[in-house]
Write a structure and sequence with these properties.
alpha+beta
Length: 592
């Protein structure tokens, strides 16, 4: 098959450390008729047929541009092209895009930067003000904002091999290149990237906080991988934006390590979450009041590259409803539904009610999952609560050790609003604020139906909570006393201050005969603590009786089933603990 003719094109903008350089590249002539929509293939020698079949339809979604491509009919129908090649070992042919969000291609963005005009209207409007200074922003979803490179040397602290290979199609060898360090630290912009800061508001500690937004994060683009999945890449700690308020736009190593570790641990616990691809640290000085006691100390600036299917949160809709931007509210909602809620028909008159119903159900599932592993988010404001019901914005989170419903990981939460035992109620509060944001778009009948959906949230939550804890106890089927069995165990754990995770782990290891004797061996130290309570014999008797009702089950099968469930929790919790300690051994040039 003949190759495409090629035409030299110059003056395309490449951004390195905030400076502009000119690159001389070549465009396939056949692509010019498609409004330059496939800029990512500039350096590839592929056939016209491959271009049309594999890449014209997806547009600039971001992809590792690999040389050995073949078409697959089933994958074409899904809107992506399957690749059969090794992972990219450099960033030369690896691109991002924001066209999916903005509806404008990279070339239009380059024109926008140079002339201030754009030939097409973005899908999600951009802030018309291009200067980067703190201000009240209106009538847009994003502001154009470039990351601020560190002034000092930057070093790689950690990467997630799984995220790099399975999500970003990158070989881990790419992390040894300077180009990778520059990209993940905000010092270099990948070809095709339009760096953005998202505008949103939110209720913080129950009070409307007005405009918030990405004050220290930059959405650097959308990547479509070889599985056809689209992931939004965001740098956290990468500098000031129009939403920085009084902040410096930076993150420190201490908090960045926590986010990197916990997001990966949560994923391996089976809990929906954003992911962390990399963590870099600089020698730049960042000043923080670590314990909120007025004692400001010098720390080092760091940046996490984190990925998620979407970074939209309840506050994304709240700010539009609060500011009366209802057409934009409708536009954003339809976009979110179209992109992320395939079960909802975007053409349906009741689509916003259907969307709300899905969010309510998935939020109940998410919080029940948090509770099942003893996770407390710590600052579950509406601006930190994902519309896709994934765990995002890891700040003062914590994993509960001794079982305590009043456990609060956030030292600034004086009223204990976000204690672990109140998370289900906070979910209800946040969903109510979501419903209020939807109200201007609903008719009276839809409002009534949506209110009924919200009223069903407690039942949804407890149904999921109950199922998760029954599994942790190895219970099969349904029995009327299951709720009492769970409640009594949690009561005993609270009164004896037993370790939450190890109690369930040791229940998965101990035999029924050992339990029946009530003389718990010392190796099961968490259970031994509980055994000191006077109600422990009654609970054991009830538990053993319930286990006998498991159909076609044996004690060995029960322990095997429960151990498989608990081992992941132990490993993930240990991973967070061990690597958190190691993070403080990163070489330092001075007293940081």
């Amino acid at each position: 098959m003949p190759q495409c003719a090629r035409l030299p094109v110059t003056h395309l903008r490449s951004l390195y450390s905030g400076t502009n350089t000119t690159r001389s590249i070549e465009f396939p002539l056949c692509c010019l008729t498609r409004r330059l929509r496939i800029l990512r293939l500039l350096l590839l020698c592929v056939t016209c047929r491959a271009l049309v079949y594999c890449f014209v339809q997806p547009g600039l979604e971001g992809s590792a541009s690999l040389l050995h491509l073949f078409s697959n009919k089933s994958n074409q129908e899904q809107g992506y092209c399957e690749t059969e090649a090794k992972l990219a070992s450099s960033l030369d042919f690896w691109t991002l895009s924001s066209e999916n969000l903005l509806g404008i291609c990279w070339y239009s963005w380059a024109v926008l930067l140079t002339s201030g005009r754009v030939s097409s209207t973005p899908v999600l409007p951009l802030d018309p003000v291009k200067e980067n200074y703190v201000r009240k922003v209106r009538n847009c979803i994003f502001s154009l904002a470039f990351p601020s490179p560190f002034k000092s040397r930057v070093r790689l602290v950690a990467v997630s091999k799984e995220v790099l290979e399975d999500i970003l199609d990158l070989d881990t060898s790419v992390t040894e290149t300077d180009a990778f360090i520059q990209v993940v630290s905000g010092g270099k912009i990948v070809f095709g990237s339009i760096p953005l800061a998202h505008r949103y508001g939110g209720h913080q500690f129950g009070i409307w906080a007005d405009q918030l937004g990405d004050g220290r994060a930059h959405l650097i683009g959308v990547y479509r991988n070889r599985q056809g999945e689209k992931w939004e890449l965001q740098l956290k700690g990468s500098g000031k934006t129009p939403y920085s308020r009084n902040g410096d736009g930076r993150a420190v190593l201490r908090s960045s390590v926590r986010e990197f570790l916990c997001s990966e641990a949560m994923h391996h616990l089976g809990i929906p979450t954003s992911r962390a691809a990399s963590l870099v640290v600089s020698d730049d000085e960042v000043w923080r009041d670590q314990f909120y006691n007025g004692n400001i100390v010098k720390e080092r600036g760091a940046v996490v590259l984190r990925v998620a299917k979407s970074w939209f949160r309840i506050g994304s809709l709240e700010i539009l409803a609060h500011d009366g931007e209802l057409d934009l509210l409708r536009t954003l909602l339809d976009f979110i539904i179209q992109e992320h809620f395939p079960s909802v028909d975007v053409k349906e008159p009741n689509r916003y009610v259907d969307f709300f119903s899905t969010v309510v159900s998935e939020a109940a599932q998410l919080i029940a999952l948090w509770m099942s592993v003893g996770f407390a988010h710590g600052v579950c404001n509406t601006d930190n609560f994902s519309l896709l019901s994934i765990t995002i914005d890891y700040g003062p989170f914590g994993f509960m050790e001794a079982y305590n419903p009043d456990f609060v990981p956030n030292t600034s939460d004086d009223e204990r609003r976000y204690k672990i035992g109140n998370q289900a109620n906070i979910g209800m509060f946040n969903l109510n604020k979501l419903l209020q944001a939807l109200h201007p778009l609903l008719d009276p009948e839809q409002k009534q139906y949506a209110a009924q959906i919200l009223e069903g949230y407690p039942v949804l939550y407890y149904t999921r909570f109950r199922a998760l804890f029954k599994a942790k106890l190895g219970l099969l089927g349904e029995r009327k006393n299951d709720d009492d069995l769970i409640a009594l165990l949690l009561h005993l754990m609270e009164k004896t201050e037993a370790d939450f995770t190890m109690t369930f782990r040791q229940l998965s290891e101990i035999t029924q005969s050992q339990l029946q004797e009530l003389d718990i061996p010392q190796q099961f130290w968490a259970l031994k603590m509980i055994s000191k309570h006077k109600l422990f014999p009654a609970w054991v008797s009830q538990y053993l009786l319930r286990l006998k009702s498991n159909l076609n089950d044996s004690d060995s099968e029960r322990r095997k089933r429960m151990t498989g469930l608990q081992i992941t929790e132990i490993i993930s919790h240990q991973r967070v603990l061990v690597i958190s300690v190691l993070s403080y051994t990163v070489p330092s040039p001075g007293p940081y």
